[in-house]
Write a structure and sequence with these properties.
80% helix; DUF6069; two-stranded antiparallel sheet
Amino acid sequence: MNPVRATTSTTGALVRTGAIATVAASAATMAVAAVGHAAGISLDMSGAPIPVTGFGVLTAAFSLIGVVIAALLARFAERPRRTFVRTTVVLTVLSLVPDVIADAGAATRALLMLTHLVAAAIVIPAVARRLAA
């Protein structure tokens, strides 16, 4: 078996899974934001509205960065799955910091944090399953 082909195949599966998880997470964060807004939670931050689609776009961007991190770890880390999960959990916690200090109401900040957690709950396990333990 050609080792380059095996790596490419594994990377391809990782990227496909990551892309599917990214789409699902983007849709989920937009749904959470839309439901929150419909329930009366403001999507304004510093007096400017956050469009519902903005949740999906940012989720996609950061999820794809996570897929790149996973691909690099798959190639270079001794324990890619463990390293990926630990790294992404720390990054998820750090992603909550701007929401905590945001110029927005408490409900808005909570909704923002919820969208981060929803995205992480979708992307991290899906991508981690594709990494070697």
